[in-house]
Amino acid sequence: MNQPLRLVLVLHNHQPIGNFDGVFEQSYQDSYLPFLNVFERYEGLKIGLHTSGSLMEWLDARHPEYVDRLANLVAAGRIEIVGGPFFEPIMTMIPSRDRVGQITSYTDWLQRRMGAKVRGMWMPERVWEQSLTGDIVRAGIEYTILDDFHFKNAGLGEEQLDGYYVTEEDGHILRVAPGSEKLRYTIPFQPPQDTIEYLRGVAERRPGAVVFFGDDGEKFGTWPGTREHVYDRGWLTQFFDALQHNSDWIKLTTPSEAFDNVAPLGKVYIPEGSYREMVEWALPASRINQFEDSKHELEHHGQWDLIKPFVRGGYWRNFKVKYPETNEMYARMQMVSRRLQEMVDDGAAGDLIDQARLELYRGQCNCSYWHGAFGGVYLPHLRNAVYQKLIAANNLLDQYENRGWQADQQPWVEISSADYNLDGRPEVKIASNRLLGLVSPAEGGQLYELDVKSICHNLLATLARRQEAYHRAVLRGPSVDGENVSSIHDRVVFKQEGLNERLGYDRWQRNSLVDHFFAADADLAAVSQGRAEEQGDFVLAPYEAKLRRNDGRVQVQLSRTGFVQGRQVKLTKGITLNAGDSTLEIAYLLENVPSDIGLHFAPEFNFAGLPSGADDRYFSGAHGHRLGQLGHQLDLQGMTQLSLTDEWLGISVHLKFDQPAAIWTYPVETVSQSEGGFELVHQSCAVLPHWTVIPDAEGRWSMTMRMTVDTQLAESRMPQWAEAAAV
User: What residue stretches are annotated with the Glycoside hydrolase family 57 N-terminal domain (predicted)?
Assistant: First the structure.
C-alpha cells in the first residue's frame, strides 16, 4: 500500500468529582497504570490522551510519578495531551463564559504541569451543539473528536468517514473528527486481528485514509472483566504487537500529526446529539421501551439497517426534564455562575474570586446530571459532591463580601423572589449566614433546597422513585445460570435479593413541606410504599406567597384554599428565619376545618446525604434516647422532638413540635442500574409528623415546629477547614 492508513487512538480517562477515593485508586491500579506500563515498551507507537481535570488533580496529588511519566512521553512526542473543559462539564449545560474559562484554565494547567501544547479537546460525553464552535475556538482549541453517529446524523454515509471535516460557526473554523463506532466495539472486546482486518478494508477502499478511535480508557482494565482480558491474558500486548507488525501500512499517530498532514474531506454542519446510546437514554422511559421494541421488530424483519442512519433518539438537555432534581442542580449552578460574573463585572478580583471560580467549575462536572447505563444522578455521593462545590463557591463569594457563616461575621438575613429554578415561575430564596433555602410556591409551596453553609451540604439533594425503562427487566427477575440470553447486556444481575419486589414510584419529588391529607386509617406501610390515598389536593397545587421583612427576621407565608374529602379548607404555612440563625421556624394554620370529619394531616420532610446502615447515623428522641439507624422505619407516638444525627458528617437535625405528634419515618430507596448490575440505593430519610386535626370553635387548627441544623461537631473537628470558608 503506497499511502499508509493513519490510525489515531485517543483515550479518555475520567473519574467524577465526589467519587470515592477507593474507586480512583482501583481504576489507577486496574487501568491507568498498567496501560502506561505496556504502552511505554512500544517506542514506535503514538497516541492521544485526555484525562479529566478531576482525575488529573487526584493523580497529581496521589501518584505524581505517573504524571511525570506522562510528561516524559509528551516531551518525547509519543503522547499528545488532549485538553478540554477542566472538570468535564457537558458543554451545552454551562454558560458561554464558563465554557471558555473551563477550557483555558485546564490548558494552562496542562502546560504548566506537563509541558503540553494543547491543540485539541475531548467533548464530554460527545454532547454537541453547533453553537459550541465559537466558544471552543475562542478558547484556543483547533479540533475535537465526536462519534461517527454525529456525522451520520448530518447525512454522511459510512464510506465518507475515513478522515475528518471542518465545521464553522460565525466565522470560527473547527476541525471535527468522527470516532469509529466499529472500533468502539472491537477495541478491546474482539481479537486484535478483527481490528486489523477492518482497517485493511478501509485502507483498500481509500488509500491514505485516517481512522479515529476515541473512547473510555477505563475499558482497558476497570470495566468488569477487562483487567483479566486486557492485561492478564495479554490483549493489549497482542494489539500493540499487531500494530507494529503491520506498521508498513498502518501508521499510529497523534491527532495533531494527522490534522497537519492530511487535508479535510470537506465541510459539515453537525446536528445536536451525542453517541447513540446517550440519545436513547435521554428519552422518557416509556419511549425507550417503545424504541427498543420497534428496533427488535425491525431487526426481526431485516429492516433495521435500512433506517438506522436516520434514527436519532432524544435530546440531552431533556435529562433536566426527565430528572427534575438535575434541573435543580443545574439552576443552582447557574445562580452561582451569575453571581460570580456580576461581582467580577463590579470589579471583584483576587484569591477568593479565583477559588470560587474553581469550585464553580468543579460543581459543573457532568456525571450526576444524567443517567444511562451507570449510576449517574442515582448516586447520592455524586449529587452531594456537586452541591458541596456549588455551596463552597457561594461561601467564598459571601466571604469576599464579609458575609461568611462563621461566628465572628456580622449576622444577616434576606429574602427574595425570582425564577430561581428556570421554570418560568417565581420561587423564594430565604437565606442567612448559616442557611439558604429555596421554596417553590407554584409546586405545593415545597422547600426544595436547604443548604447548610458550614459543611457545604444540601439537606434536600434528594431523588424521587420513578419508572425506568430497565425496570421491566428487573420485574422479570435475575437471570439464572444456563439461561439463554443474546448478550451480556441482556443478563439481569441483582446486587441485592428481591429487587423486583422493591420497585415503587413517587407522584411528587422528595422535597420538604409536602402537605398530605391521608385517610384516618393510613399506616406506615401504605405511606412508605406510595399506596396511601391522597384525600387533599395540596401536594402539587400552587400556593400564594407573601414575603415579610423585619429587622433581623424574614418570613415567607404560603397560603392556599383547597379541598380535603370534598370540603373546602384553607392552609397557611410560614417559614421564618432570623439573622445568623440555623433554625427554621415553620408554622401551620388550617382554617374552615370541618368538625364532623377527622382530617389526618401529615407534612412530609426528606433529608438527603444522611445515609443508612451505620450505628453512628441514627434517630433519637427528646432526651437523646436512640431510636434506630437512619434507614429504619419508625412508627412513633406522642413525640415532641425527633433528631436525625450523622456523626460522620458532623450534623444533627432537630425537629421540635409545640404539640405532640405521631411520626412515621422510612428510607426512600431506588432500584437503579450500575456497572455491576441492579442495586438498591438509599436516597433520603422521609419523616412525616402527623396529627388528627381537631379544630377549635372557629374551625381553626395550628401547629408550630422548629427545625434546627446543628453542625458544631463538624466545626469542632475542622477549625482550619472552617476558617477557609468550608472549601
Answer: 9-271
